[in-house]
Amino acid sequence: MSKHFNKFKGTIQEQVVPIIKTALTLHGEVERNFRKTAVNFHYEFNVRHLTNIFQGLLVAKPETIKEPDNLIKMWVHESERIYGDRLSSSENMATYKAVVADLVKKSFAKYNLSKYF
Question: What's the rounded Cα separation, in Å, for the pair 29 and 40?
Fold first, then answer.
């Protein structure tokens, strides 16, 4: 991630480590909150899902990501694409969005991203 984002502005590069830490935290929360059951047999989250999120972020280009909050929003989008698309009920989706909103508020407090949640 760091190597890819070396081409970006310094303020964007600074967000790489917090995004990685927050992605790991989110993965743990998803594993804890959404357990595999007979009804939700597809609720099995592993390292492959994390890999897919980071692969999505590595598609970013310097000409499209001009501000750090754009990268954070892209991470939120990729995470929802990977985790949110697997959730089968609106209650689970609401729980997921609440977890992400809380993590974004804690990890990226200096950016006003609350309007997206």
Answer: 17
Distance CA(6)–CA(42), nearest Å, equals: 37
Phi-psi region of 18 (alpha: psi -120 to 50; beta: other; left: phi over 0): alpha
Give the span between the Cα atoms of 96 and 87, in whole angstroms: 9
SS3 state of residue 59: coil
Domains and CATH numbers, the chain: 4-116 (1.20.920.30)
Q: For the full predicted model, state whether its pTM sits above 0.85.
A: yes
pLDDT tens, position by position, 52-94: 999 999 999 999 999 998 999 999 999 999 999 999 889 999 9
The confidence score (pLDDT) of residue 39 equals 78
Q: Is the separation of the CB atoms in 6 and 59 below 8 Å?
A: no
